[in-house]
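Hi everyone,

Forwarding the result from last night's run.
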Amino acid sequence: MGIVVVAVAGVFGSGWAWLAFGVVVAGGVGMLGWVVLRDREPASVSGMGSTIRPLALGVIRRGGALLVFEGHDGVKDETFYRPLGGGIEFGETGAEALRREFREELDADVEVGARIEVLENVFVSEGRTGHEIVFLYDAAFADRGFYAREEFKILDDDSTARWVDVADFRDGSKILYPTGLTELLSPEQ
């Protein structure tokens, strides 16, 4: 009497994987089953899948300027700006995610204030549709020395963050994402 275990795996779609397995017992009696596994979605916009992604973004102001990173969509040939932050991991609150993201991106501690708003953002980036639920928080650097810097190299990305006048977003000369954020910002703070 013998037992043979067979397993076959494959990948399909956007980050989905499957595993089929079987057990065959001598005499032709056996059982077959399968399991669908899903990899965690990548954290970058370029790795978007067909899921809704929760984000926490920090609105950090220096007078009439907002701290944002500069991005570029090569398909649309569009330069855009977005506050810093990132994906909320399972079991993590938005405020916790924001503190973690600032440590990862700038090696900086932030004080997370009130939640400003929650925005739903359906967009196209690099020719691919994305869907985000964005938790926006007032935030401030714990080390006030960060406010004297003009630019910040983002440590886990090739992007640069800088202060941009809110007036540039309000008059349309610069594009701010997520959609709806510009209307929430007062000209001075």
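The first strand starts at residue 3 and ends at 12.

Cheers,
N.
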